C-alpha cells in the first residue's frame, strides 16, 4: 500500500513523514519505507556496547550469538566522544550496520521531511537518527525521546520474589561515539509547539514545511 502511494509522487515537490508520538516497534517498517525512496544504497554504522561481565547480560548475548569485541578496541574517535562510563563500566561492543538497498525506479525527486517530537523513541528514534546522519530527510519539531539503535531488553526473574525485571540490554553510540540515550536527536528546525492538529493550517510543523518549500 505504501509502495503504491510512493509510486504516485513523481510530480510532487515534497513529502512529509509524520512520526510524532511514535514510541517505536520494529526497524523493519521504516527501513522498508526508506528503501522505496532512495536511488542509491545507504549504509550507516554505529556501536552497541554491553556490560558483558554481568552473568545476565552474558547469557543474553550468548543466546543471541552476538559477535562482541573488547571495549578497548573501539575506534579512538568513538572513545573520545563516548560517555566516560563507556570504558569504565562496559566490557564489550558490537558493530552495527543499517544497509538499505535502493529503488532504482524511483520517480520522486522532491525533498523529504520527518516530523518528530519528544515521544519519538526506540525504533522510531532509530529512524530519526538515520535521517539526521544521512540527510535522507530534514527533521522538523522537538528533540526526540532517544534510545534508538538498541535491541530487545533483557528479562530476568528475582530469585526470592519471583518478580520479572525488564532492563536495557545495551547502549547505542553513533559512528562518532555520541550516546543517543543522552543527547537524543535534535531536529534541523525546532518548533516549540509541535502538537499535531486535525487542521494542517494550525499545525506548526506542517506550516514550517510549507514555508521552507514556499508553498502557500
Explained architecture:
One of its GO terms (biological process) is proteolysis. InterPro entries: ClpP/crotonase-like_dom_sf (IPR029045), Tail-specific_protease (IPR005151). Residues 8-190 form the Tail specific protease domain. There is one protein chain. With 216 residues, this protein is α/β, with parallel strands linked by helices. The chain has helices at residues 2-6, 27-35, 55-63, 76-81, 85-89, 122-134, 180-183, 204-212; strands spanning 14-18, 42-50, 69-70, 92-100, 111-116, 138-141, 154-157, 164-167, 171-174, 189-190. It has a 4-stranded parallel beta sheet with strand order 1-5-6-10, with helices on both faces. A 4-stranded antiparallel beta sheet has the order 3-4-2-9.
Terminal residue distance? 29 Å
According to DSSP, the number of beta strands is: 10
CATH topology: 2-enoyl-CoA Hydratase, Chain A, domain 1
Strands side by side in the biggest sheet = 1-5-6-10
InterPro entries: ClpP/crotonase-like_dom_sf, Tail-specific_protease
Domain Tail specific protease: 8-190
Protein name: Tail specific protease domain-containing protein
GO molecular function: serine-type peptidase activity
